[in-house]
Amino acid sequence: MKLEDLKTIDQLEDFLSGTQAVAFSVLSDKDACYRWIQGELVKFRYLQLSRSGKGVVIRYLMKVSGYSRPQLTRLIAQYRKTGQVKRR
Asked: Does the reported pTM lie above 0.70?
């Protein structure tokens, strides 16, 4: 299974608990990583999720991107405000 195959919050929880085998690679280019993060926020409809669902998505983004929770919180705040995640 690839990261693109993860479509639901339940699948993300399985991935985070280690019961789902997934192949992934961390993006080295910041612009590409930011675009990927934005795409994942859109794909999982982050702004419409429940509090627990948002936590699962954040943990998933932390694991795959390698960014810290505060960094992702800033990026998500930018997404919430502008609808995009871009470098400043």
From this structure: yes
